[in-house]
């Protein structure tokens, strides 16, 4: 299953990343529209704001705690977050993805930004194709692990978090931001909710998602420390309204027609996520933790 799923994810992002960059730019993640989701702002600024808000929430941007120098970006896309973090912290950032197209494009962007390591700059971003369940890094290699909207793709959530724990240095911070479903401690998912999620899984190449309390439980099991969680669903839900509005202009439609059926299907199914947020089924979960 894992091999087949990885191939599906690879093909999905190989096919769609170019169009996303053309229409939306370098950041392949939600935007932040204020805690209540009511702030009006440029869509790309909203994506930058999400990065900054996450860093502040996870207390990464506090100089007195020591700024990160070795950063891992799990599910790096075309390098949007990686390049941003490298420049912000003057750090060495390694990004991994299952998509050779994404890794290649991210590498080109790092080179064009003078961050490939050949320009004498302290900020370096490098990229490779790798499986997050079996990362090709030594134990305790990174002092900050950034996972922004990649956890939902992981076929074994506990194994993924265990790998992140393994490569995290003592004192380092793990920040995972991922799609979740609503908590189920009081009421199990209904048949309609399960079908809704199954449709999202099929369209976006996801094996399954968990609730945020379930992720927190896994973090405790793995001996993470200083575990914190938050649900930012209201803050990011307007993102899907904006995506839908932008998906059907002339430029996007032409791009869709040349990107293949999986990309077209994803575009036609954007309402699944929009309605999921509206009903409270889909949640945007944050988890930060440290390793002692």
From TrEMBL:
Residues 140-148 are annotated as: SAM motif II. Residues 71-80 are annotated as: SAM motif I. Residues 72-175 form the Methyltransferase type domain. GO terms for molecular function: S-adenosylmethionine-dependent methyltransferase activity. Keywords: Methyltransferase, S-adenosyl-L-methionine, Transferase. GO terms for biological process: methylation. Residues 167-176 are annotated as: SAM motif III. PROSITE patterns: SAM_GTMT. It comes from the Bacteria. Belongs to the class I-like SAM-binding methyltransferase superfamily. gTMT family. This is SAM-dependent methyltransferase.
């Amino acid at each position: 299953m894992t091999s087949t799923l990885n191939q599906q994810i690879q093909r999905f992002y190989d096919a769609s990343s170019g169009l996303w960059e053309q229409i939306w730019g370098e950041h392949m993640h939600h935007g932040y529209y204020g805690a209540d989701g009511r702030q009006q702002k440029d869509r790309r600024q909203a994506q930058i704001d999400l990065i900054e808000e996450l860093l502040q929430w996870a207390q990464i941007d506090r100089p007195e705690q020591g700024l990160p120098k070795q950063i891992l970006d799990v599910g790096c896309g075309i390098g949007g977050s990686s390049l941003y973090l490298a420049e912000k912290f003057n750090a060495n950032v390694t990004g991994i993805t299952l998509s050779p197209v994404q890794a290649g494009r991210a590498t080109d962007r790092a080179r064009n930004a003078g961050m490939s390591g050949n320009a004498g700059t302290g900020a370096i971003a490098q990229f490779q194709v790798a499986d997050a369940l079996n990362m090709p890094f030594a134990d305790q290699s990174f002092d900050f692990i950034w996972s922004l909207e990649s956890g939902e793709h992981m076929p074994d959530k506990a194994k993924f978090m265990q790998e992140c724990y393994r490569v995290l240095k003592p004192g380092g911070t793990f920040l995972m931001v991922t799609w979740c479903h609503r908590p189920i401690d009081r009421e199990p998912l209904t048949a309609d909710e399960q079908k809704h999620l199954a449709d999202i899984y099929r369209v976006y190449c996801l094996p399954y998602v968990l609730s945020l309390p379930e992720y927190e439980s896994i973090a405790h099991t793995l001996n993470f420390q200083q575990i914190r969680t938050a649900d930012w669903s209201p803050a990011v839900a307007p993102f899907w309204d904006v995506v839908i509005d932008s998906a059907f202009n002339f430029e996007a439609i032409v791009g869709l027609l040349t990107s293949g059926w999986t990309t077209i299907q994803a575009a036609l199914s954007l309402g699944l996520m929009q309605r999921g947020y509206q009903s409270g089924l889909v949640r945007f979960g944050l988890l930060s933790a440290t390793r002692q």
